[in-house]
Specification:
Its EC number is 5.3.1.6. The protein is of the alpha/beta class and 241 residues long. The protein has 6 helices and 14 strands. Helices cover 30% and strands 26% of the residues. The structure holds ribulose-5-phosphate. The site of ribulose-5-phosphate has 17 residues, from α2 and α4.
């Protein structure tokens, strides 16, 4: 099974088993979420399911409207029942790295307003320790005028390298949906206490948000190369065949 198919089985499983009628849903960002929205649209069509979808990014908003799903805003839906989102890495304590696609700020806001955050991912995102598999570092969204001092502060406080994320089809840096820059902090191989690191990073003036999601994820579903799904939460890991 290809990586794309592994993403799809995880997405389908989450949508089929955790989305109920009349739910307010947070819709995450990235390539795996595309499959979840497709499945959601199928269920809305075939089962006449009623949902309201609150996006976590420009991409998510476009996905929702492309599939003619009801679009909601946080103003009118401040409490979200369930958010389904991807992740760049999930460690054994369910700490996440997010923001590989640059959408971490709105993703974290929506997750913080959600009763449950479910991660859908392929098997390559499943790690014992952060950094075991995802080598690009922790994305940190920063106010553009402060990126140089923030970069120096992060490197002095924790070691490693904080690199300004460059755009691919544009000269210069990536600009987020919120008009900010992203520093990808490639951290040293140390046993960090991620909750404390997250707090310390967010205390640096000019840091808008970090891609560290600590104690936010309810369950993660990893699509496997053999076609089944592995479910993980804080208490257990099980194979669903
Ligand atoms: O945090 C994200 C975007 O900011 C994504 O959820 C994360 O990058 C995973 O994306 P994909 O499903 O494409 O692997």
């Amino acid at each position: 099974m290809s990586l794309e198919e592994a993403k799809q089985v995880a997405a389908n499983y989450a949508v089929d088993n955790f989305v109920f009628n009349n739910s307010i849903l947070g819709i995450g960002s990235g390539s795996t979420v595309v499959y979840a929205v497709q499945r959601l649209a199928e269920r809305v069509e075939t089962e006449n399911l009623k949902v309201t979808c609150v996006p976590t990014s420009f991409q998510a908003k476009r996905l929702i409207t492309k599939h003619n799903l009801p679009l909601g805003e946080l103003d009118t839906n401040p409490v979200i029942e369930l958010t389904i989102d991807g992740a760049d890495e999930v460690d054994s304590k369910m700490t996440l790295i997010k923001g590989g696609g640059g959408c971490l700020l709105q993703e974290k806001i929506i997750a913080s307003c959600s009763n449950k955050l479910i991660v859908i991912a392929d098997y390559t995102k499943d790690a014992k320790k952060l950094g075991d598999r995802y080598k690009k570092g922790i994305p940190i969204e920063v106010v553009p005028m402060a990126y140089v001092p923030i970069k120096k502060k992060i490197e002095a406080m924790f070691g490693g390298k904080a690199k300004l994320r460059k755009a691919i089809a544009k000269a210069g840096p990536v600009v987020t949906d919120n008009g900010n820059f992203i520093l990808d902090w490639v951290f040293p191989n140390t046993d960090f206490e991620w909750e404390k690191v997250n707090q310390d990073l967010t205390m640096i003036p000019g840091v808008v948000e970090t891609g560290l999601f600590v104690n936010m994820c309810y369950k993660a579903f990893f699509g496997q190369p053999e076609g089944h799904v592995v479910e993980r939460d804080m208490t257990m890991t099980r194979e669903i065949r």
